[in-house]
């Protein structure tokens, strides 16, 4: 188990994590060979995500709504949302400077997308109310995921929906040597120290979310679940942590999962999906 020391300075952890986000965003613009373990990297999962506002909140391409893509990374989902919901305004928020540059660069000529750089917790109160909020695989990377879920809930419009994907405990079970427990937040996490990203020495920290604990958090934040599901995530995202670990056996395993998903896009890792609304 990793000790608690590195949890004492959330700001420091935020800063180090942006290096990983920047690196992946810069690679992702040209190729999908380096990617997050995210449903936005799988066409069918992305389509499912895009459909949720239409299915759950009745949005059409004529609706003039405000849609947030929080922790938008390189802007893959942001672009798809802007194309699908053309009369809506799509607001991306991204914390890591390099990833922000990549996302922002995509939309310089766009009429319905704005990408804002900064910490979502600080930026969200300025952009609210939002009718649809996507937080796709981002909450786990924040310094305090419980505070971030509150900020997301508070940014929703009265009938707004929050679309959230977060990792379950698969990773902490797969890599017990990097697993730790955050007593204050009652959440498990993964932490790797002394890794090299793009030639720089850094560390990596990510929370995991047991279903029961997450449901308690939702309740405390005044959120109720309107849909619970799973989506296939991009298996290519597994290759990157294996590179960091320099572990041949696990790399081979990850490569076999990627191969399998190439043959069958639904065969990748599964990531939990929650669609939430504020309790009235
Ligand atoms: C795992 S990536 C997922 C990117 C994208 N949503 C996807 O699924 O393809 C998480 C992203 O959230 C961003 N992020 C983390 N903490 C953030 C915060 N406090 N405010 C805004 N963005 C944040 C990271 O910089 C990173 O780009």
Automatic annotation (TrEMBL):
It holds the Pfam family Methyltransf_23. Gene3D superfamilies: Vaccinia Virus protein VP39. Keywords: Methyltransferase, Transferase, Ubiquinone. GO terms for biological process: methylation. The keyword Kinase does not apply. GO terms for molecular function: methyltransferase activity. InterPro entries: SAM-dependent_MTases_sf (IPR029063). It comes from the Archaea. This is Ubiquinone/menaquinone biosynthesis C-methylase UbiE. The lineage of its organism: Archaea, Methanobacteriati, Methanobacteriota, Stenosarchaea group, Halobacteria.
């Amino acid at each position: 188990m990793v000790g608690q020391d590195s949890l004492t300075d959330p700001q420091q952890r935020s800063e180090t994590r942006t290096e990983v986000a920047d690196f992946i965003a810069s690679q992702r613009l040209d190729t999908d060979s380096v990617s997050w373990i995210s449903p936005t990297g799988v066409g069918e999962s992305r389509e499912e995500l895009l459909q949720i506002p239409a299915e759950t909140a009745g949005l059409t391409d004529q609706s003039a709504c405000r849609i947030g893509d929080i922790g938008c990374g390189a802007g893959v989902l942001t672009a798809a949302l802007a194309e699908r919901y053309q009369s809506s305004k799509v607001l991306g928020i991204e914390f890591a400077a390099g990833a922000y540059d990549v996302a922002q660069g995509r939309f310089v000529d766009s009429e319905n997308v704005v990408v804002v750089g900064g910490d979502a917790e600080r930026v969200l109160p300025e952009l609210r109310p939002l009718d649809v909020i996507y937080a796709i695989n981002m909450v786990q990377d924040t310094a305090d995921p419980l505070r971030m879920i509150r900020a997301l809930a508070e940014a929703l419009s009265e009938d707004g929906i929050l679309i959230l994907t977060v990792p379950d405990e698969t990773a902490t079970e797969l890599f017990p040597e990097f697993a730790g427990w955050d007593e204050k937040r009652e959440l498990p996490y993964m932490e790797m120290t002394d890794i090299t990203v793009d030639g720089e020495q850094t560390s990596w920290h990510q929370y995991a979310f047991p279903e029961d604990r997450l449901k308690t958090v939702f309740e405390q934040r005044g959120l109720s679940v309107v849909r619970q599901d799973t989506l296939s995530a991009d298996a290519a995202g597994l290759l990157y942590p294996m590179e960091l670990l320099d572990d041949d056996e696990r790399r081979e395993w990850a490569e076999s999962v990627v191969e399998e998903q190439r043959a069958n896009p639904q065969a990748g890792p599964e990531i939990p999906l929650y669609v939430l609304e504020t309790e009235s």
